[in-house]
Amino acid sequence: MEVVTELVIYLSAGIAMGFGAIGSGIGEGLAGGKAVEAAARQPGVQGKVMKTMLIGQAISESGGIYALVVAVLLLFTAPHEALSVGKIAALLGSGICMGFGALGPGLGIGYAASKGVEGVGRSPHNEPVIFRTMLIGQAVSGSTSIYALVVSLLLLFVIK
């Protein structure tokens, strides 16, 4: 494999996973922090708070998982012939697209989860409404990471 191509593949995989992990990590931390505050304020509703937190964190992780898939696909990209400048740019674009495309949604989904946990901690009797609203907000916020995944895969497999 040509040295430039190898460098681009490794750089792209690192960008995809690095930025994808930042968004998911911060988003999950936001939810976890608010869960600790809510459980400290009202220990009797810890079960509802914990459920909301764990589901919120799991959804926040989705962008990081998409970034991992793209990074692994990039690392297993082993061209047998010299690549065009366009294909090399597409490989780099794929990693950048997925990394940054997972960063924002990870933060947004985590923010929604943190507010959901906070709401359940304050009004545990409204947990079903708060939980449902949190999930809808997370779904809308997370849709952009799916768009980034689609574009990233197109760049990987369609551009010649």
What would you say this structure looks like, in words?
- This protein has helices spanning 3-41, 46-60, 62-75, 85-122, 127-157.
- The chain has a single domain (3-78, 85-157), classed as Four Helix Bundle (Hemerythrin (Met), subunit A), CATH 1.20.120.610.
- With 160 residues, the protein is mainly α.
- It starts with a helix and ends with a helix.
- It contains five helices and no strands.
- Helices cover 86% and strands 0% of the residues.
List the defining traits of the structure above.
mainly alpha, 160 residues, Four Helix Bundle (Hemerythrin (Met), subunit A), single chain
How many domains make up the coordinates?
Answer: 1
CATH class assignment:
Mainly Alpha
Envelope shape: elongated
CATH superfamily: lithium bound rotor ring of v- atpase
Function: Key component of the F(0) channel; it plays a direct role in translocation across the membrane. A homomeric c-ring of between 10-14 subunits forms the central stalk rotor element with the F(1) delta and epsilon subunits.
Family: Belongs to the ATPase C chain family.
Domain V-ATPase proteolipid subunit C-like: 11-74, 92-155
Protein name: ATP synthase subunit c
Quickly describe the structure:
Belongs to the ATPase C chain family. The chain has five helices and no strands.
